[in-house]
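Researcher: I'm preparing a figure for a lab meeting and need a structural model of a single chain. I don't have an experimental structure, so a prediction will have to do for now. The sequence is pasted below. Please return the structure as tokens so I can convert it later.
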Amino acid sequence: MGELACDKHSLNFSDVFSQQFRLTLQGAPALPGFHATNIGPYQLQSGPDLSISQVHFDNARGHMIFLGIGVDQDGDVITSRRLRHKIKTFDALDAVERYVTACAGRYIAVIAHGADMRLHLDPLGSLGALYEAQTRSVASTLNLLLCRDVQENTDYPLTDLAKAGASRFAFGHTADQHAKRVLPNHYLDLQSFALTRHYDGADDIFEPTEDEQRHLVQKISTRLEQVIGALANHGRPALLPLSGGVDSRVLLASSRTAFGNLKIFSHATNMISRKDVRIAKRLCDYIGQPVMVIDPRRDNHYQITDPKRIADLAKAWEIATDTPSPKHDQHEVVHAYPKGGLLLRGNGADFLKAVLWRRAVDEYTQDRNHCIDEGLRMMMLGDSSVTDNDALRAAYSEWYSTFSGVAAKRPYDFMFAEQFLSHGQGNLFYGMTHNFYICPFNDRALLSMATSLPPDRRRELDYVQALINWRAPEISQMHYTRKAVNLLMQSKRLAEAPVMQVA
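Model: Understood. Here is the structure written out token by token.
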């Protein structure tokens, strides 16, 4: 479908799908401009701007292809050379999988080892994957997966609302009846096409003491610094968009050792984002780093005035993601950054804010059993009647039943990863091909440590304060863009609430 859509609108296929991939049985037609590699009975075709590393295991045990960019638990960026050095001799599949799933970044790994063949995602599913069991195919997006017209998904009760933008897909559903999304923390068996949970947090997520919380914050910032440093030294320009929000400030505070290889930007498209720019400039003044401001409305250097180019960018987005295009000014901002770099996003750092807990934090503080109705409501599917829908209740119950121990007390964190980010940014990042978007916090160790921290204190930003106060004390008192955050910080100062001391 993607080739036909590109031909119809006179767009270059390998530009539109430049960071995407398609995995099919060998013998499928070649995709123009894509790189092809055989693995087992499959052929993996990948776009020209999607990094590829691979390793053949000793003793003819098999082969692994790693797409995208990852940073292993030792702080090294994944390359073919690195894979040969670390896992070439691994005889056991589970050892290979432990190495891969411990990587931070944005990636997919296709592993053929012995009699097994599996596909793994990064922890947030930010390099998204859809599959169709009938054709034994996997691809980044719907228009690359399907070689036929979309068959409307009648199994998902909110399909019409999701297609209209009034709701969204969840539980692995897509607009197509037979195309399903690979969820984070699951692997896809490429023989049976069954999806199996490989990570439930039971061995990693715990209820920490006060001293353990302090130690977790220290470990979070140290690992985050390691990942950012590895990405900044990777050889491609590393770009950090800075706003007046919490997430980018967490990244900034953990980036000090990478400043020499990191370019900081701030952009504006309206009055609110211009406040972001003002705060970003003050932050950079305090830490002594330059910041580049992108404001297309006030600097015509960043404006795209050619109507055809804007139309082409909008159509390319729609074909690449199967979603409506952003507004004109958002295309201008995306294309104002230097091309070909790594753009570091703060997604994942929002776990430090307990972002989806909201009213449900009482469930944690009162040690109540998880309420399915409350969980469904907190998924914000855009329909107030979701709790009355038997199909949605069954899907939620089945999903929640896969957790145990302390992890079962953190459903909203897993929901954010598996039902929000993977279905959202896991698809939308494919529309932003000017740079490679990557989230340094997208790391299983980081996410597990953040999830272990008590949600009520995360919601109060206690750990954000502690991290910034430790790593960048000169910016710890600066205002944020959101009024609610400033009021929270002000109330804590007035109450003379102590800030956790990390070191």
